[in-house]
Design goal:
Blueprint lengths: L1 H6 L6 H7 L4 H4 L11 H12 L1 H12 L5 H28 L6 H7 L6 H38 L7 H21 L4 H29 L12
Helix pairs in contact: 4-10, 5-6, 7-8, 8-9
Length: about 230
């Protein structure tokens, strides 16, 4: 009985939180039951890994060649970064005012007020869920195409087929699923490792792209005909 009562106890700050945000007590009143494994560095790594900006942008150049050329990707990145600054500033303000690991649906439930908070929070939660599903699928697709193209580069006789990409996609997705389910304690370490891996990979990629054209007789820079 005591255990059951303790589960239902309110957080010491929950009453103040619900009063300050128009009585959204259902969202605010809960206890922390999941152990906290992530720190500042691992959370930073999580954001960088999820964004994975330069590998995704580099991989999209192949597609952009047939849709306006690679400069479209580069200038698009500048424009998107400008608007994303305002998105990041808004999220930072919400996170500092109402810190919660719940994220979007928590803020969407509180900021509209008591009247519309539940409805907007419901849709925000589902849209956030679908966003994570699509983001995971896109990252797995990029990874699968990269693996297949690396294999094709080393095996000139290999013919790329869609079923091969899909097979690697399914295997990668299930490996990621098992890693999250059974390797939760290792996730923060992997995120910290991902920071250095992405930054070192970016440096290596820049050096290779700058050095290889000079070794193969190229000019080392894009010409006006290419642009």
């Amino acid at each position: 009985m005591e255990d059951n009562k303790s589960i239902g106890k309110k957080h010491p700050d929950s009453t103040a939180t619900s009063d300050n945000h128009d009585g959204c007590s259902v969202v605010a009143e809960h206890t922390q039951e999941v152990p906290v494994n992530f720190g500042l560095l691992s959370l930073t790594g999580l954001g960088i890994i999820i964004g994975v900006v330069w590998p995704a942008s580099g991989g999209s150049i192949q597609v952009a060649i047939f849709n306006g050329g690679s400069p479209g990707v580069l200038y698009e990145f500048i424009v998107v970064s400008f608007f994303y600054f305002f998105v990041a500033a808004s999220l930072a303000e919400l996170a500092s005012a109402m810190p919660s690991s719940a994220g979007v649906y928590y803020w969407a439930s509180i900021t509209p007020g008591k009247r519309y908070g539940r409805v907007i929070g419901f849709f925000a939660g589902w849209w956030n869920y679908l966003g994570w599903i699509c983001a995971g699928a896109s990252m797995a697709a990029i990874w699968s195409n990269s693996i297949i193209q690396i294999y094709a580069l080393k095996h000139p006789d290999y013919i790329v087929k869609e079923v091969h990409v899909f097979g690697v996609f399914v295997i990668s997705t299930w490996l990621a699923c098992f890693s999250v389910c059974y390797g939760g304690r290792a996730m923060p370490l992997l995120n910290q490792f991902g920071i250095y891996w992405l930054l070192i990979g970016l440096l290596i990629t820049i050096v290779v792209l700058a050095a290889v054209p000079l070794r193969t007789g190229g000019s080392g820079h894009a010409t006006s005909s290419f642009l």
